[in-house]
Amino acid sequence: MTPVVEVGTELPPTSVRVTRADLVRYAGASGDFNPIHWSDRVASEVGLPGVIAHGMLTMALAGRFVSGWAGDPSAVRGLSVRFTRPVVVPDDDEGALVEFSGNVTALADAPGGGRVATIAIKALFEGRTVLGKAVAEVLLP
């Protein structure tokens, strides 16, 4: 039975830890070896508070949050964000905690049947927004 989705429906919140090892894996997969994602020295030389997560990694985690709720990655029809603040990843075993939440802000009929839910996503690191204007469109059954 498909759960009822209406405007205001909240997605179950989730938290994701991002470690330096995650940054290494993401750099290898994406080809983004910018030293601000692995070198404390370079990060501080350019004015950052430390090594930061790749913005696209943070966006991908938001996409995973939404696709997990949808139950099918192919149901996510669109995802857009603005990068508002970096996720600083310490050189320890705990890493940085990014918290995701969201809610349905609109529903529309989809061509060919079904409905499309617009999801407003919140992504927080240390209580502060790291993805602004984060919105996903999800095809519902």
UniProtKB/TrEMBL annotation:
Family (UniProt):
Belongs to the enoyl-CoA hydratase/isomerase family.
**What name does this protein carry?**
Acyl dehydratase
Which Gene3D superfamilies does its entry note? Hotdog Thioesterase
Q: Which domain of life is it from?
A: Bacteria
Choose one Gene Ontology CC annotation of this protein and give it.
fatty acid synthase complex
What GO terms in the biological process aspect are recorded for it?
A: fatty acid biosynthetic process
In its UniProt record, a GO molecular function of this protein is: fatty acid synthase activity
Q: Which PANTHER family match?
A: (3R)-HYDROXYACYL-ACP DEHYDRATASE SUBUNIT HADB, 3-HYDROXYACYL-THIOESTER DEHYDRATASE HTDX-RELATED
- Location of the MaoC-like domain: 14-92
Pfam families, A to Z: MaoC_dehydratas
